[in-house]
Design a protein that fits this description.
Blueprint lengths: L4 H26 L1 E6 L3 E2 L3 H9 L4 E12 L2 E5 L3 E2 L8 E8 L11 H15 L7 E5 L7 H16 L4 E7 L12 E5 L18 H4 L13 E6 L2 E7 L2 E5 L13 E6 L2 H14 L6 E5 L3 H6 L2 H8 L11
Parallel strand pairs: 1-3, 1-14, 2-5, 3-6, 6-7, 7-8, 8-9, 9-10, 10-14
Antiparallel strand pairs: 3-4, 11-12, 11-13
């Protein structure tokens, strides 16, 4: 059978369109859901194990320990106790939180301390092969140089063993030079002032977020994005901020004090996902839940997770 030039052109256009559609579908299916585990005890109960299985969580960012100032020297603190085995289908990314004050002065030995301790803990607790180490630090202009030096040294040390290094990126840090890491995780939470009773939601409010996203598309570092599913119970005495009420901490309250619940709602998370999709969709190829505590996964049921993280079901573009 012979085809005219027009028929050939039509078939070519149809083939190209189908290939593009397949590519889009493939890109969508490649999106994955990961989770932070931010506690001093790593213990997965049956509900958490079911959540990991049902939502195909393939990666857990496990807080290993904090680095805190101690007599002028940074020291590890509050190391995680590992009481559950790593699920076979899950990769653990050891994550270290660094108090900003640790970096007010240069710390030339800190990269060695972090790397050695992380690798020893992962080996001791059989957390699987380490492919990536993540540092979490709310660095400032005063500590940026020392933090970036730490990243460079740690990255050089880790790269020799085939391990990458990532860094969390807070929204206000998007205006700064990207850190010397292999990639970053944009933290789409803790966006407002928790001490204000009459302010916007301090966990996630898009009116607070939008000004920071103007340069997101030009940010010169591969990114993933992390979204909140947690809540805070915030205590006030009148308009005076008293603190966040934690189950395991004592906060003296008086009759008449008020406790307000602040939380990242499914609708607000969905809007944040859509905002990132409209500006830098690749950052949502991996969407990371903060965090996978028992309380959070019970409060955010399956319907809420699907509503929050399936941005394609609700259209695209940043809502105004």
């Amino acid at each position: 059978m012979r085809y005219t030039n027009i028929q050939v052109l039509i078939w070519s256009l149809l083939t190209t369109t189908l290939l593009c559609l397949c590519a889009c579908l493939s890109e969508r299916h490649e999106r994955r859901l990961s989770a932070y585990y931010w506690s001093t005890v790593f213990h997965l109960d049956s509900a958490q194990q079911a959540f990991i299985h049902d939502h195909h969580i393939g990666r857990i960012y496990l807080r290993m320990f904090d680095v805190v100032p101690n007599g002028g020297r940074p020291m590890p603190n509050a190391s995680v106790q590992v009481l559950s085995p790593r699920p076979d289908s899950v990769e653990v990314v050891p994550t270290v939180f660094i108090i900003n004050d640790c970096l007010l002065a240069p710390q030339p030995q800190l990269d060695s301390l972090i790397y050695t301790r992380v690798m020893q803990m992962c080996q001791t607790h059989d957390l699987g092969p380490v492919h990536e180490i993540q540092l979490d630090c709310d660095w400032t202009q005063r500590t940026q140089s020392n933090y970036y030096d730490l990243l460079r040294h740690l990255r050089e040390r880790a790269r020799a063993q085939g391990i990458s290094v990532s860094s969390t990126i807070r929204l206000h840090q998007l205006s700064q030079t990207p850190p010397p890491a292999d990639r970053g995780v944009l933290m789409m939470y803790n966006t407002g002032d928790v001490t204000r009773r009459d302010g916007t939601d301090p966990i996630l409010d898009m009116s607070d977020v939008r000004p920071y996203l103007k340069g997101l598309n030009d940010y010169d570092l591969p990114l993933s994005a992390a979204y909140p599913v947690f809540e805070w119970r915030v205590a006030f005495r009148g308009s005076k901020y008293l603190g966040i009420v934690h189950a395991d901490e004592y906060l003296p309250l008086l009759p008449g004090d008020t406790i307000l619940t602040r939380q990242g709602t499914p609708e607000m998370v969905r809007r944040a996902v859509m905002a990132i999709d409209s500006l830098r969709p690749g950052a949502n190829d991996e969407m990371i839940i903060y965090d996978i505590s028992k309380q959070n996964i019970q409060r955010f049921n399956t319907y809420h997770y699907e509503k929050a993280f399936d941005s394609h079901s609700a259209g695209s573009g940043m809502q105004r």
